[in-house]
Amino acid sequence: MSYSTVGIVGAGTMGHGIAHVCAMAGQAVVLYDVDDSRVANGLKKVEANLQKGVEKGKVTEAERDAALAHLNGTTHLRDLAGCDVVVEAVPERLELKQELFRSLDGLLAPEAVLATNTSSLSVAAIASAVADPSRVIGTHFFNPVHIMALLEVVVHAGTRADVLERTLAWGVAIGKECITVKDFPGFATSRLGVCLGMEAIRMVEQGVASAEDIDKAMVLGYRHPVGPLRLTDMVGLDVRLAIGEYLATELGNAAFSPPALMREMVAEGRLGTKSGQGFYSWSK
Asked: What is d(CA 41, CA 135) in angstroms, rounded to the nearest whole number?
């Protein structure tokens, strides 16, 4: 019922993480990106994370070697043709995801599943790009993928029941706890998380408290593993700004509107971990 051969489009933060957990589960993985350097970088990150697992005693050397043996990289989309499922982990632009799925639609077998790792975009809109939208499903992973337990499985109105069943079985096979959510703007996680993050930024903007103390309040008072501002840094302020704008429009709710402070930080290039500076300094 699960998938044995997995294709992943995009070797960045999410893509290489998905490749990691699938390879660890013994599935054959083909990791695609547009150039050799990106593919090589993604593969190196998987190997580095597996090595960290060995050093911490959480992964054996045999498990590391077996996972790496299941992992292959490519710059040719056609190499995904034999996959049971292909997961896209490309930037959050609807047109880009639709174009990719159109290309994959003609390559994959009719029974193969197309999965999108979108965190907020309409799965139905992405699915509209293919001849059979019923084989499209949302698989929203969380960063870092090899550590975070949750997999948010998103079904649009046309997703076939067998596609959902196979995807849930796959989630279990790769060690995830799955929740099933309907295709609605922001799903469950982004809708709640982005709303909290935007309000936390407004509190900094208004001088209510420092970023550190706001985060500490949520970690110690509500047992969040990471505060909303540190999490915003980790996701990327530019990424969250785009999601906030989308949700504010789609839901007609100003609570999701990015605060002026956030817009200023993005304009100045203070994007969080990827730029070295956000609400926190990440230069080290």
From this structure: 30
